[in-house]
Amino acid sequence: MDYLYDEGDRDIIFFGFIIGVVSFDSEDAPYEKSEADRFNHALRLANFLISDGDFNPGKSIRQENGNFRKTLYEGGFEEFRQDLEILFDGGGIDNIDLVAGPWLVKNNIGKSASSVPDRISQLFG
């Protein structure tokens, strides 16, 4: 969890990164989860980070000129979740819009991770 908080200090955390965190251990060995489990576990981890108040969900939107505009989800986690489910249903775990569009931004740079409940620790295995 500290790794996510450190990454959040440097930049936004794309949902694809969160999928990777719950898909592979620190040695890059896969946890042998189905695509649906990887997606659902990433969603649960994102929900924890958002509900703890440490992160806010957002997305990058491609503009007509090819640049991207970053915007926060006004509906919080619920809107974020709905958008992610539509993207997953439309293209699976490797959908580029799923892995590189939605993201989390850390609210308090420098803040460390709080204690991690067992229900979240279980996602890493």
The average pLDDT score comes to 93
* Share of helix, binned: 40-55%
Q: What's the number of extended β-strand segments?
A: 4
Unreliable runs = none
Major sheet attributes: 4 strands, antiparallel
What is the overall silhouette? Answer: globular
Distance between the termini: 14 Å
Helical/strand content category: alpha+beta
**Rg (CA only):** 14 Å
Tally of alpha and pi helices: 6
H-E string: HEHHEEHHEH
* Oligomer description: single chain
Beta-strand share of residues: 15-25%
Q: Order of strands in the sheet with the most strands?
A: 1-4-2-3
Keywords for this entry:
125 residues; alpha+beta; 6 helices; globular
Give a quick rundown of the structure.
The protein has 125 residues and is of the alpha+beta class. Helix content is 48%, strand content 16%. The protein has six helices and four strands.
Write the topology of this structure.
Layout: H1 2-10, E1 13-14, H2 15-23, H3 35-51, E2 55-62, E3 68-72, H4 76-91, H5 96-100, E4 102-106, H6 118-121
Helix pairs in contact: 2-3, 3-4
Explain the overall architecture.
The protein has 125 residues and is an alpha+beta fold. The protein is built from 6 helices and 4 strands, in the order H-E-H-H-E-E-H-H-E-H. A hairpin with a 5-residue loop joins strand 2 (55-62) and strand 3 (68-72). The radius of gyration is 14 Å and the shape is globular. It starts with a helix and ends with a helix. The model has no long low-confidence stretch (mean pLDDT 93).
